[in-house]
Each structure stands twice: as structure tokens, then as C-alpha cells.
Design a protein that fits this description.
- This protein starts with a strand and ends with a strand.
- 35% of the residues lie in helices and 21% in strands.
- The chain is globular, with a radius of gyration of 13 Å.
- It has a five-stranded parallel β-sheet with strand order 4-3-2-1-5, with helices on both faces.
- It has one domain (2-116): Hypothetical Protein Ychn, Chain: A.
- The chain has four helices and five strands; from the N terminus they run βαβαβαβαβ.
């Protein structure tokens, strides 16, 4: 089975990004055979920036995305969204790939389930 997570919200301010990552991580833990793909759009692309410094005891999206990647998940970022926010020159998490709508379409068509946050 393939599951696609499409995340649109900023990494902090609401808990949508956090909850998407929690769900993806729990799926990976409880169902290792499931392929997890995450596509970041709009303000969510900033969640893949490195060196996030959150307060002690607060969730950290960078660490959560790295955990998903370390369990075999793939993370792609909307290139147009990166450009629109002026963050193209910044450093993103290793293994997070700049992508486009055509790849999102392919991931969507290939997915058995799609979650949006």
C-alpha cells in the first residue's frame, strides 16, 4: 500500500503539520510494509529547512521529517512554493527533493490513500 500526505500549513502556528507527521510516523511504526510519501506545498515547505530551534519540550518538525525519511519515507517539496517564499537559497533537509506538480500528480495517481493537512 502507498499513502500520500499532502501538507499545506506552516510547520508552526497550528498543529496540522505536526499531526500529519505523527500519523505518518505511526503508520511507519505499525505497518512497515506501507510506503509513505509526503509532499510539502505552500507554507509547509519551510518545515523542511534545517537548524530549526524549538523550545525544550516543543515538537520539532525538522526532527519529525527526518524520522519519516529514516524509516524509508520520501519527502518532496513544491518548487514553485519554495520560489514564491524566497527560500530557494536556504538549506533543506538532506533527502528532501525539490519537486513539481507533475510529480505530485504521479504520486496522487499511484497512491492508495491520500491525506491532506
Amino acid at each position: 500500500m502507498k499513502i500520500l500526505f499532502i501538507i499545506n500549513d506552516a510547520p508552526y502556528g497550528t498543529e496540522k503539520f505536526y499531526n500529519a507527521c505523527r500519523l505518518a510516523m505511526t503508520i511507519q511504526k505499525e505497518h512497515q510494509e506501507v510506503e509513505v510519501n509526503v509532499f510539502l506545498m505552500a507554507d509547509s515547505v519551510t518545515g523542511a529547512l534545517v537548524n530549526q530551534n524549538t523550545p525544550q519540550g516543543y515538537y520539532n518538525i525538522e526532527r519529525m521529517l527526518k524520522a519519516i525519511i529514516n524509516k524509508g519515507g520520501k519527502v518532496k517539496l513544491c518548487g514553485g512554493c519554495i520560489d514564491a517564499r524566497g527560500v530557494a537559497a536556504l538549506q533543506f533537509i538532506d533527502s528532501c527533493e525539490r519537486s513539481n506538480m507533475s510529480e505530485l500528480v504521479q504520486w496522487s495517481v499511484d497512491a492508495d490513500k491520500v491525506f491532506t493537512f
